[in-house]
Amino acid sequence: MGGHVHRALEGDDQVRITHVVVPSGHVEATRARLNGRAAVAADIDDMEEPVDFALECAGHEAVAQTVPRLLARGVDVIIASVGALSQEGLAESLEAAALRGGAQLTLVPGAVAGIDALAAARQQGLQSVEYTGRKSPAGWRGTPAENALDLDALSVATPFFEGSAREAAALYPKNANVAAMVGLAGIGLDRTLVTLVADPRATHNNHRIVARGEFGELDVRTAGATLPDNPKTSMLAALSIVRAVRNRVAGIVI
């Protein structure tokens, strides 16, 4: 995802990517790939100049370890790995760091539509929120789904997880960032009901949100193409980050 976002923003005349931070074992290869187009470091302490804001595309550990340090320094941060906030107390510690540094943390909607409406409906009270994630068996490889199902032998759509958004995001961190986003935008991680499905006939990553409350009813479906080199990640998730970055410098924000 980081590579996709970098390529999308590289030619933007209003946004300049000055630094890329990667694990120490990837520094040299990343430097060679970028060929001087951005400074590459293994830690934010190694960055050569101040930055206006930072973008996280590195996973849950980066959200817990690096993002609080940036916020405390007064650097606004946009995060992709929203599922990290399923960790007990992390959202509160990130908020405290942001308030300390006078910074702001932005969570992007990612691969799913309807988050704006869900967050708006929350202002008047929500009764229930349900999220269903449906992907091909390949999209669930390398996850605990392999222990629940024989992914190679599936012939029909099969649910393999039912639980809270907090549980889903913790067990499936590379797949269920959407579940965490739905929970945080609506009635909370522990009250949001999540169902995950492996479907051999699915050609896209499919997401459905059903919410009810005083506002009425919301039923939103999204079928997103995956990134070419990562079937676990929807292309719309990467594009959501690109939009969030461009909104920071746009004259009109949608």
TrEMBL record:
Keyword NAD annotated: yes
EC number: 1.4.1.21
Domain Aspartate dehydrogenase: 157-242
GO molecular function: aspartate dehydrogenase [NAD(P)+] activity; NAD binding; NADP binding; oxidoreductase activity, acting on the CH-NH2 group of donors, NAD or NADP as acceptor
Domain Aspartate/homoserine dehydrogenase NAD-binding: 2-105
SUPFAM superfamilies xrefs: Glyceraldehyde-3-phosphate dehydrogenase-like, C-terminal domain, NAD(P)-binding Rossmann-fold domains
Active site, per annotation: H207
Keyword set includes Oxidoreductase: yes
Keywords: NAD, NADP, Oxidoreductase, Pyridine nucleotide biosynthesis
Signal peptide: none
Biological process, per Gene Ontology: NAD+ biosynthetic process
Enzyme class: oxidoreductase
Pathway: Cofactor biosynthesis; NAD(+) biosynthesis; iminoaspartate from L-aspartate (dehydrogenase route): step 1/1
Pfam families the UniProt entry points to: Asp_DH_C, NAD_binding_3
Cross-referenced InterPro entries: Asp/hSer_DH_NAD-bd, Asp_DH, Asp_DH_prok, L-Asp_DH, NAD(P)-bd_dom_sf
Residues reported to bind NAD(+): A111, N177
Substrates-to-products reaction catalysed: L-aspartate + NAD(+) + H2O = oxaloacetate + NH4(+) + NADH + H(+); L-aspartate + NADP(+) + H2O = oxaloacetate + NH4(+) + NADPH + H(+)
PANTHER family given in the database record: ASPARTATE DEHYDROGENASE DOMAIN-CONTAINING PROTEIN, L-ASPARTATE DEHYDROGENASE-RELATED
Family: Belongs to the L-aspartate dehydrogenase family.
Note: The iminoaspartate product is unstable in aqueous solution and can decompose to oxaloacetate and ammonia.
Biological function: Specifically catalyzes the NAD or NADP-dependent dehydrogenation of L-aspartate to iminoaspartate.
Protein name (record): L-aspartate dehydrogenase
